[in-house]
UniProtKB/TrEMBL annotation:
It comes from the Bacteria. This is Nif3-like dinuclear metal center hexameric protein. InterPro entries: DUF34/NIF3, DUF34/NIF3_sf. The lineage of its organism: Bacteria, Pseudomonadati, Pseudomonadota, Gammaproteobacteria, Alteromonadales. Pfam families: DUF34_NIF3 (PF01784). Belongs to the GTP cyclohydrolase I type 2/NIF3 family. Signal peptide: none annotated.
Length: 250
């Protein structure tokens, strides 16, 4: 497929213009004019680029790309080496951040809910494109039981703050670095909040507002949206897609 057509296909699926973001969504570095072999991954790290080069890929598709608001603009050092590798090997880089988080079927939040048997009930924020969402556990679990389930499913033990004696029925979640939404979840009387990371103040919010908290890893909670997007492209559009998981303990 021609790169222009591929870009339009991704934009039709993810609708990046529907939400304001902290980075450009879509084609970030231009490479080959034809898209045939795609490597997907969470972050456009040097390790992922090297893996794509080894796979003879012409396109990389990630959740965390480049050119974030507030980052240093000069293309030097690590940034220069990454972009040079893409350009020297004629590889397209596509990045989709919040549009991939919020997609109702293949998004990070939706995929995490599917893995952890959570039933989606709505957005935590008002409006159609809430980044944090809320729902119910299909089977109520104690905090310890839910922590064990996260460990088993994501292969990573979460950091927890378990402050309630009752089983968890209602839950809010936001993959990645969404710890700041815990106060919104607590204000809505939700039993537990799940995200990727924790800040120092997050634990105090959990303790003082009586809401169980789980930080299951930024990378670990965001592996599944980009993987699902690649699978959709392979199954519905015939692309050769390889998901490459570059492990990250954060």
């Amino acid at each position: 497929m021609q790169r222009k057509q591929f870009t339009q296909l991704l934009n039709d699926i993810l609708k990046p213009d529907s939400i304001a973001d902290f980075c450009p969504n879509g084609l970030q570095v231009e490479g080959a004019s034809d898209v045939k072999k795609i490597v997907t991954g969470v972050t456009a790290s040097q390790a992922l680029i090297d893996a794509a080069i080894a796979e003879n890929a012409d396109t990389i598709l990630v959740h965390h790309g480049y050119f974030w608001k507030g980052e240093s603009q000069p293309i030097t050092g690590m940034k220069k080496r990454r972009i040079a590798a893409l350009l020297n090997n004629d590889i397209n880089l596509y990045g989709y951040h919040l549009p991939l988080d919020i997609h109702p079927e293949i998004g990070n939040n939706a995929q995490l809910a599917k893995l952890l048997d959570i039933e989606f009930t709505g957005g935590l924020e008002s409006g159609p494109n809430s980044v944090p969402v809320k729902g119910r556990l299909k089977t109520p679990l104690s905090g310890e039981e839910f922590s064990a389930k996260i460990t088993q499913v994501l292969n990573r033990a979460p950091l927890t703050s378990l402050v309630r004696k009752e089983k968890i029925e209602t839950i809010a979640w936001c993959t990645g670095g969404g710890q700041g939404y815990i106060d919104l979840a607590a204000a809505q009387g939700i039993d537990a909040y799940l995200t990727g990371e924790a800040s120092e103040q997050t634990i105090h919010s959990s303790r003082e507002q009586g809401i169980d908290f789980f930080a299951a890893g930024h990378h670990a909670t965001e592996r599944y949206g980009i993987k699902a997007l690649g699978e959709l492209l392979a199954e519905q559009h015939g692309f050769d897609v390889t998901f490459t998981d570059i492990d990250n303990p954060v």
